[in-house]
């Protein structure tokens, strides 16, 4: 079964549409391309990836699709489109013609209105996504989870992926409400959980034990068939780097069967993102 990194980025600072990416970000405030990622993928035995947006512009979506077109390694792209545009559904219809587009990700965590997900105007674009088998990547914070549950219930035909476990507050340990919301969200069959982005949530110099409660809980709720692993590279360079996070994930999942681990490290990503769109993962 092909190993897939279900969540990484690339960026070119000169494009100037990464509002969150400032000099204060230190190690990641520079250009990152697929050539920088290649050694990490090789070391981890990863053959395919899902390239995820990092800027809230349609221009970046085109930029990522063009990159993906030039390499077999990128199996699909999760892009961004303007869900607030009056013609958002029509834009999705148009972009859906690009076969390497496998999903869309509004940057909900950066939207000032905490109730944005509940806007009735989102119904049409979300229905368009479902028609085209596009996945909704939910980049949310813990406070958004109750709203996300409502959206998931409104769109049972749309596949949702919870990015980064919904970013539990691991640094403070205040995760009781998060655990309740994760348990509720997991009862919805059209949601899966992405084991990604956790390295930047605990206090600095984190150890595997700092992540175990959250991972064990999400795994108990979603099960190994509804969890996918992603690196969140190069953001992960802020908190240990690719190899450290990959080794931590392997340790956290060590008690699972080899079949379950294979599903999390690739099989589930192929099913969720690539069963009807993107590049196939079967070997010939």
Automatic annotation (TrEMBL):
Domain called Amidohydrolase-related: residue spans: 4-273
Task: Write the protein's name.
Answer: Amidohydrolase family protein
Belongs to which family? Belongs to the metallo-dependent hydrolases superfamily.
Q: Name one Pfam family in it.
A: Amidohydro_2
The species is: Bradyrhizobium brasilense
